[in-house]
C-alpha cells in the first residue's frame, strides 16, 4: 500500500476563483461513477442518476433523518420535541472539535446496530421517509410527512424498536432540516459531502488478501458500499493512482460545467466501514477490525487541529468536501481539479 506522510489541508496559493468558468490549468481526473444519498443515518441509501447540489450542502436530503436512542430522548428531550432538538443535538459535545456535532453515540449506528444495513432509507415527499427492505425493495413502513404524519413516524420508531440490536427503548425518529447527521461536521458549509475514488477503494480491496492473508468474502461492489460515499470518482484517464485524491485537499474540484466543490480534508474512517453488508442480512456480523491496517496512515488535520493529536484516531480513506458553486451533477460528468 502506498504510504503518504502528510496531506496539505490549507488553501493553495494558486487556488482559482469559484466562478465556474473554464480554467487553463484544469486537469481532468475522471468521471462520476455513482451518486448516492443516505436519508437515514446508518441505513443503506438511494442511488441517483442526477442530483442538485445546493450551496454548502451535500446530495439531496443526505443524513436528514437519524434514530435517536430512546434513553437519550427520554433523558434529554421530550419525544414530541425531536425536531426542535435537532439543532441542539448537532452542537459540539464536551471536548469535541468545534465543527463536530455532539457525540454520535446518541444515535443508533451501523457499528452498534448492523441490522440497519438490511434496510434502505428513501426520502419521500418534502419531509417524508420510507423504509424499504434492502434485498427486495419492498416498502415496510413509511412516514409521509415528518411534521404532520405522527402515526407514520411512530410506526417507523416501533418498527426499529424490535429490530435494532442495542435498542432497549423505542428510538425517536429525528429530522435535521437544513443540517446533516453526518459523523463529522453536519451544519451548512461544513464536512457534508463525501467523495471516494474507485482506484483507492480497489487498492484496499485487492490488498486485503495480499497483506492480511485473509479471504474477504465480498465482491468489489459489495465492499465498495461499506464506505457510504455521496460521489464515487471513476478514472477514465489512466492517471489517477490509489490515494492521489489526498492531494486535492485545499483545492477546488469542478463537476461537469457548473458545480465546484471545495475539498476540505481527508476522511477519518469510522468503525462502521468494518461491517459487512452481507453479514447484516444473516445477522452474522464479524467486524473487520484489521481492515484499518490497509488505509493510508496520514498526518492530517481535521478542523485545524494538530496532526499529532489526530494520529490516535485511525486511518483515512476518501475526502470531505462542500459545494461552493451550486448546480446539477449527473453520472458520467467529468471531474476536474482546478
**Order of adjacent strands in the largest pleated sheet:** 1-10-9-13-12-11-15
Q: Level of helix content?
A: 10-25%
Helix/sheet category: alpha+beta
Radius of gyration: 19 Å
Biggest beta sheet summary: 7 strands, mixed, barrel
The share of residues in extended strands comes to: 15-25%
Number of domain units: 2
- Number of H- or I-type helical stretches: 7
Measured between the Cα atoms of the first and last residue, the distance is 27 Å
CATH class of the largest domain: Mainly Beta
CATH fold group of the largest domain? M1 Pyruvate Kinase, Domain 3
Query: So what's the overall shape?
Result: globular
Number of separate strands: 15
Structure write-up:
It is a single chain. The chain has helices at 70-76, 82-89, 150-161, 198-212, 220-224, 277-282, 307-310, and strands spanning 27-37, 46-48, 50-53, 65-68, 119-124, 128-133, 139-143, 172-175, 193-197, 231-234, 252-255, 259-268, 316-325, 327-330, 334-337. It folds into two domains: 27-58 and 186-337, PK beta-barrel domain-like (M1 Pyruvate Kinase, Domain 3); 65-175, no CATH class. Strand 5 and strand 6 form a beta hairpin. It has seven helices and 15 strands. The longest helix is centred in the middle third of the chain and has 15 residues, at 198-212. With 338 residues, it is an alpha+beta fold. A seven-stranded mixed barrel has the order 1-10-9-13-12-11-15. The protein has a three-stranded antiparallel β-sheet with strand order 5-6-7, with helices on one face. A two-stranded antiparallel sheet has the order 3-14.
Amino acid at each position: 500500500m502506498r504510504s503518504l506522510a502528510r496531506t496539505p489541508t490549507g488553501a493553495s496559493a494558486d487556488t482559482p476563483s469559484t466562478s465556474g468558468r473554464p480554467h487553463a490549468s484544469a486537469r481532468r481526473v475522471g468521471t462520476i461513477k455513482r451518486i448516492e444519498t443516505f436519508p437515514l443515518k446508518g441505513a443503506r441509501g438511494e442511488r441517483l442518476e442526477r442530483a442538485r447540489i445546493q450551496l454548502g450542502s451535500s446530495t439531496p436530503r443526505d443524513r436528514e433523518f437519524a434514530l435517536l436512542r430512546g434513553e437519550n430522548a427520554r433523558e434529554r428531550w421530550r419525544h414530541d420535541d425531536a425536531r426542535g432538538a435537532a439543532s441542539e443535538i448537532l452542537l459540539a459535545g464536551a471536548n469535541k472539535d468545534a465543527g463536530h456535532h455532539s457525540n454520535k453515540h446518541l444515535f443508533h449506528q451501523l457499528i452498534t446496530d448492523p441490522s440497519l444495513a438490511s434496510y434502505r432509507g428513501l426520502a419521500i415527499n418534502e419531509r417524508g421517509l420510507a423504509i424499504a427492505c434492502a434485498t427486495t425493495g419492498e416498502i415496510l413502513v413509511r412516514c409521509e410527512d415528518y411534521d404532520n404524519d405522527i402515526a407514520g413516524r411512530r410506526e417507523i420508531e416501533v418498527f426499529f424498536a424490535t429490530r435494532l440490536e442495542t435498542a432497549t427503548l423505542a428510538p425517536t425518529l429525528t429530522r435535521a432540516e437544513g443540517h446533516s447527521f453526518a459523523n463529522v461536521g453536519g451544519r451548512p458549509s461544513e464536512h457534508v459531502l463525501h467523495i471516494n475514488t474507485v482506484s483507492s477503494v480497489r487498492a484496499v480491496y485487492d490488498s486485503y488478501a495480499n497483506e492480511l492473508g485473509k479471504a474477504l468474502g465480498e465482491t468489489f461492489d459489495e465492499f465498495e458500499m461499506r464506505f457510504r460515499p455521496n460521489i464515487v470518482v471513476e478514472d477514465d484517464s489512466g492517471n489517477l493512482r490509489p490515494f492521489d485524491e489526498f492531494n486535492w485537499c485545499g483545492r477546488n474540484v469542478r463537476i461537469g460545467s457548473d458545480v465546484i466543490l471545495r475539498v476540505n480534508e481527508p476522511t477519518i474512517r469510522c468503525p462502521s466501514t468494518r461491517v459487512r453488508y452481507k453479514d447484516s442480512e444473516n445477522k452474522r456480523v464479524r467486524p473487520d477490525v484489521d481492515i484499518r491496517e490497509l488505509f493510508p496512515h496520514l498526518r492530517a488535520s481535521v478542523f485545524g487541529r494538530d496532526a499529532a493529536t489526530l494520529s490516535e484516531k485511525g486511518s483515512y480513506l476518501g475526502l470531505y468536501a462542500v459545494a461552493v458553486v451550486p448546480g446539477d451533477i449527473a453520472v458520467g460528468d467529468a471531474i476536474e481539479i482546478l
